[in-house]
Design brief:
alpha+beta, 41% helix
């Protein structure tokens, strides 16, 4: 008598769907993965974003804000969605930083870079520092170069 179930024994390579790669991906060695975002995960990300923003402002519960920030980061990463650039999160505790409520913002001049680049004549950048009140982490964001507005205005005038 034969086996029950009627399943044929196939090699493991035939059971799994084969991932096809393009010639460009093969040449560069980089694989492009398209984020698969369905409406359910998109709505969940939006809801978690709203909860994280709410927890930073209205009740000002830092631990709840950190929890929702971590959940938002985990769900976004799992679904392959890029983080919202308008949200600034703490690099350590992943709390959504809201200046005035759970963080302070300072602009610092980059002194070490200024000294080092004096001989080259390049313009140093200012740093924007977000201090998280929950974990006391100093989140550093690179700013724009000093004098970038003047250069931009000169370029505009030269083109017209």
């Amino acid at each position: 008598m034969g086996k029950k179930g009627g399943a044929k024994n196939l090699p493991k390579s035939e059971l799994k769907p084969q991932n096809r790669i393009t010639l460009r991906e093969e040449a560069t060695g980089k694989l492009k993965t398209k984020p698969i975002v369905n409406t359910k995960s998109h709505l969940r990300i939006d809801h978690l974003k709203n909860l994280a923003l709410w927890a930073t402002t209205d009740p000002n519960i830092p631990s709840l804000s950190a929890f929702y920030g971590r959940q938002l980061a985990a769900v976004s990463e799992a679904s392959g969605v890029a983080p919202d650039p308008s949200l600034i999160t703490c690099q350590r505790c992943e709390t959504v930083l809201h200046p005035g409520f759970n963080s302070t913002v300072r602009i610092e001049k980059n002194r070490s870079k200024r000294r080092r680049n004096k001989k080259f004549g390049s313009i140093s950048q200012n740093n924007v520092v977000y201090n998280c009140h929950f974990c006391s982490h100093r989140n550093l964001k690179r700013g724009t170069a000093k004098g970038h507005v003047k250069r931009y205005a000169q370029q505009k005038l030269n083109h017209h």
